[in-house]
Write a structure and sequence with these properties.
- Helix 7 runs antiparallel to helix 8.
- The radius of gyration is 21 Å and the shape is globular.
- The chain is an alpha+beta fold.
- The protein has four domains: about 1-95, Rossmann fold, CATH 3.40.50; about 120-180, ATP-grasp fold, A domain (Dna Ligase, domain 1); about 185-310, D-amino Acid Aminotransferase, Chain A, domain 1 (2-Layer Sandwich); about 320-415, Alpha-Beta Complex (Glycinamide Ribonucleotide Synthetase, Chain A, domain 4), CATH 3.90.600.10.
- It is built from 13 helices and 21 strands.
- The longest helix has 21 residues, at about 230-250.
- Strands 10, 11, 12, 13, 14, 15, 17, 20 and 21 form a nine-stranded antiparallel sheet that branches. A five-stranded parallel sheet has the order 3-2-1-4-5, sandwiched between helices. Strands 6-9-7-8 form a four-stranded antiparallel sheet, sandwiched between helices.
- It is about 30% helix and about 30% strand.
- It binds adenosine monophosphate and glycine (GLY).
Length: about 425
């Protein structure tokens, strides 16, 4: 098969690595990719939002499958454009991508079919929104209704914070204000073919920038899989109460969902509740999950496109995995670009470690430099979580990049390796 992965992050590097191992593959491309991905796929210099460019490349090269990593091109209609040209795409139509593109769309869908989620209201007017939070009190959650790259959410502990969040977000569009749920969070992934949903594993994400879950929210600073206390029974409850009802309702509305459905869950005292849906793999959850997948990812993606997931099964390694994001100093507000990164090869040589590239670029002479916020994902696997952490952090310590940083407490529920910051 001739396959194109769309994206340039650590998630896409992990997807490319998994697809590259498939016996079904004849050739793999990635647009626009990154210097790490160049080792497993041919790089195509087309940006993720250049839908006409991707379409042209797909038809000119007689591609069999396009695998989009990020949500933005899906929300903008990439899957629809490819479908119109008869090219399979393992991602949702723009109509189905509204599950991520609009928080109020998803909240309404949840309410319509009884999916457990936080109580909510949507506001276009600052005075009404202020009045609502004054009446409801804190803590309360204020979100941008539209796409915000995982950064449009404020969990306000004080009234002043809630009011400031409303004033900050409203100029860019409507806000959704929600009841604040408490409990551990789990990212659950399901591969969907429009009708059937196949669990693709679960992970714990660490969204805050600082150790001990402090500082602003980010796209994700680390993840590990499986999450603590995540049982087959809990997964089945989440599939039965959240994922399958959403899939059935999308099909009933004539906008069936195909691709990866990412359910951000909170495990509350009343059971799992939906925080949000995303229409793609998580980053860095994908990196952690791909290191646990035994089965052929490409075969599963093809079955999703063919509507044949009903009898499909995936095999997973029991061994846990962990993904540690290395970000450029200043992330998430203003990451410094251009600093030189050394030692990634030595890091990858640690037993059990894998180095995925995200925001990197390479000079003509081969020098690797930071070119984004999240720059590398350093992963580890091991017989237990502690061994996986040791592998990942030993690899982190071999990366010589003074302008980079990472959290030191990813997988904090296990034993932490004692390593100096670096
Ligand atoms: P989201 O972008 O919707 O995933 O939100 C980012 C983070 O904000 C989530 O991972 C949660 O930690 C937090 N969050 C979002 N909604 C709620 C809520 N209703 N109650 C408590 N925390 C929330
Ligand atoms: N790590 C969470 C996300 O990709 O949205």
């Amino acid at each position: 098969m001739r396959v194109l992965v769309v994206g340039s992050g650590g998630r896409e590097h992990a997807l490319c690595m998994a697809i590259a191992g498939s016996p079904l593959l004849s050739k793999l491309w990635c647009a626009p990719g990154n210097p790490g991905i160049a080792a497993v796929a041919e790089i195509v210099p087309i940006e993720v939002m250049d839908i006409p460019g991707i379409l042209r490349f797909a038809t000119d090269n007689a591609l069999d499958l396009v695998v989009p990593g990020p949500e933005a091109p899906l929300v903008a209609g990439l899957a629809d454009a490819l479908a119109a040209a008869g090219i399979a795409c393992c991602g949702p139509s723009a109509a189905a991508a509204r599950l991520e593109g609009s928080k109020s769309f998803t909240k309404e869908l949840c309410d319509a079919v009884g999916i457990p989620t936080a109580k909510w209201e949507r506001f276009d007017d600052a005075a009404e929104a202020h009045d609502f939070v004054r009446r409801r009190g804190v803590p309360i959650v204020v979100k941008a209704d539209g796409l915000a790259a995982g950064k449009g959410v404020v969990v306000a502990a004080t009234l002043a914070e809630a009011l400031a969040a409303i004033d900050g977000l409203l100029p860019t569009g409507p806000v959704v204000i929600e009841e604040c749920l408490t409990g551990p969070e789990v990212s659950l992934f399901a591969l969907c073919d429009g009708v059937h949903a196949l669990p693709m594993g679960a992970a714990r994400d660490h969204k805050r920038v600082g150790d001990g879950d402090t500082g602003p929210n980010t796209g994700g600073m680390g993840a590990y899989s499986p999450p603590p206390a995540w049982t087959p029974a809990l997964q089945e409850e989440a599939m039965a109460r959240i994922v399958r009802p959403a899939l059935a309702e999308m099909a009933r509305r004539g906008t069936p969902f195909r691709g990866i459905l990412f359910a951000g869950l909170m495990l509350t005292d009343d059971g799992p509740k939906l925080i949000e849906f995303n229409v793609r793999f998580g980053d860095p959850e994908c990196q952690a999950l791909m290191l646990r997948l035994k089965s052929d990812l490409l075969a599963a993606l093809v079955a999703a496109c063919d509507g044949e997931l009903g009898h499909f099964d995936l095999r997973w390694h029991d061994r846990p995995s962990i993904a540690v994001v290395m970000a450029a100093r200043g992330y998430p507000a203003a990451p410094e670009p251009g600093s030189v990164i050394l030692g990634t090869d030595r890091a990858a040589a640690i037993e059990g470690a894998t180095v995925f590239h995200a925001g990197t670029r390479q000079d003509a002479n081969g020098t690797l430099r930071a070119a984004g916020g999240r720059v590398l994902t350093i992963c580890g696997v091991g017989t237990d979580l502690s061994a996986a952490q040791k592998a990942a952090y030993a690899a982190v310590d071999r990366v010589n990049w003074p302008e980079g940083f990472c959290r030191r407490d990813i997988g904090k529920d296990g034993a932490l390796p004692q390593t100096p910051p670096g």
